[in-house]
Amino acid sequence: MTHIAGELVAMAQHDLKIRDELSKSGKLSPGYNPDMEKVHRYNASRLEEIIDAIGYPSIEKVGREASDAAWLIVQHAISEPNFMKKCYNLLSDDPNASPKQLAYLYDRLCYFEGRPQRYGTQFDKNCVYPIENLEEMKLLRKELQLEPRDEALIIEVKDKTAQSDLHRDNQEFNRWRKKVGWI
Question: What phi, psi does 104 have (nearest 5°)?
Fold first, then answer.
């Protein structure tokens, strides 16, 4: 398993290196940079092969650093919704999985599905992406030892009918979400 652990860490490091380079050159945003997407798709494909061979790369199987690297790869696999959901389910079934990692991945899935998040982990610029319930979010963040969020930056979605798709007015993003299978 040592070679798999090393490979996972190298994949995550490469992801972060490319992200940093694109960010410094001003090419990371707006939209999803094709070079970044290529890295994310490759990493997701390779991680899926690893999962098929050994199961989810848990701490017990590959060590903390490599397991954290696998989680980062999953978080960034936004062009692979079925893979992200599969990994969320695998992590949910692991009693030793990091509750913080599960929270971040849960909110990430909510964001791309257009649903309000639960833990307040996803944000854009200086605004927290809409949440389900402010009081519950505060309790969950405290329980998970996540930093409190500035409540002035939070939108709580109280109208359940409005929760069907919080991205409904973002045509470009919705075209991409449809293309990759989020909607």
Answer: -60, -45
